[in-house]
Amino acid sequence: MFGWFKKKSPQPAGPDFSMNEWPFEDVENVAVFTTRQVVKDREPIVAVFHGAEDGAWQFHSAHHATMADLMIVSLREVFDVDPSIAALADLPLGWEASRLAPGQRWQRQASE
User: Fold this and answer.
1) Whole-structure pTM value
2) 52: in domain
3) Which residue in 61, 48, 9, 6 sits closest to 31, CA to CA?
4) How many alpha carbons lie under 13 Å from residue 97 in its C-beta half-sphere?
5) Range(s) of the domain holding residue 65
6) Contact 85, 59 (CB under 8 A)
7) Three-state SS across the chain?
8) Is 3 left (phi over 0), alpha (psi -120 to 50) or beta?
């Protein structure tokens, strides 16, 4: 969907990175979907989706969001809210990850 923003980053991907390295293959300013609750209210991210068709990222809290809550922001903005998403930098296209609360291990699975 936002392919014109996507370019591969030269930095390595993966959860083992220094603060000077960007963990995602997508550039920091790639557009991603999230909610007001994540960005403005700083609610914990508990669900992440990596779209199979367009590679779009989605980051959600446990709050039931409405259309009015939806936001498009940069991946860097979401990362700054919750750096633990770096553990999902290698989440394959068409997969999702969830956890019950911050600090808990992400559970990964192929999206239906």
Assistant:
1) 0.81
2) yes
3) 6
4) 22
5) 23-90
6) yes
7) CCHHHCCECCCCCCCCCCCCCCCCCECCCCEEEEEHHHHCCCCCCCEEEECCCCCCEEEECCCCCCHHHEEEEEHHHHHHHCHHHHHHCCCCCCEEEECCCCCCCCEEEECC
8) alpha
Separation CA 6–CA 30 (nearest Å): 6
Please, is 11 exposed, middle or buried when counting C-beta atoms within 10 Å of its C-beta (0-12, 13-18, 19+)? middle
Residue with tokens 């557009």: 31
Residue 95 domain flag = no
Q: Which two tokens stand for residue 54?
A: 């367009």
Number of domains in the chain: 1
Residue-wise pLDDT for 43-83, tens only, equals 999 999 999 999 999 999 999 999 999 999 999 999 999 99
